[in-house]
Write a structure and sequence with these properties.
One of its GO terms (molecular function) is zinc ion binding. This protein is α+β, with helices and mostly antiparallel strands. It has one domain. It contains 3 helices and 4 strands.
Length: 133
């Protein structure tokens, strides 16, 4: 009988900026770099404004362990949201630590009406570029 490997050691989240952590309804979230996929149309995108429960991050769990909606904030697909507003959420495929030296310049920027955190009243990005309220 094979021995099960020990669980990975805790991976403490260290926020680069104070705005990279957020608490909502008893859950603390941390900002990470996420890869998303729309289950309706298959569109894929990357987001530097992905929010996952810090507890899941620190336990080194991948998205297959995210069983309820409190484990991450949702994002919506822009084309599908135009067809069926508020009727779906995209699937978080994977995430990793957000690195400061990575600059993302492709795409329209952060679109608030497609972001779960922004829709809860806690605006992710205060920059003027790419805002759609």
């Amino acid at each position: 009988m094979a021995d099960n490997p020990p669980p990975p050691p805790p991976n403490p989240y260290v926020a680069k900026r104070p705005t990279d952590k957020w608490r909502h309804r008893g859950v603390t979230y941390c900002r990470v770099f996420g890869q998303w996929e729309c289950e309706m149309c298959g569109k894929k995108w990357d987001s530097g404004y992905t929010w996952v429960a810090i507890k899941k991050y620190e336990q080194n769990l991948d998205v297959s362990h995210f069983k309820n909606k409190k484990d991450r904030m949702y994002q919506r697909c822009s084309p599908c949201n135009k067809k069926n507003p508020n009727k779906h959420e995209a699937k978080l495929v994977s995430f990793k630590l957000l690195e400061n030296n990575v600059k993302l310049v492709k795409g329209p920027g952060h679109i608030r009406n497609l972001c779960g955190k922004c829709n809860k009243g806690a605006i992710c990005d205060r920059a003027k570029v790419g805002l759609k309220v």
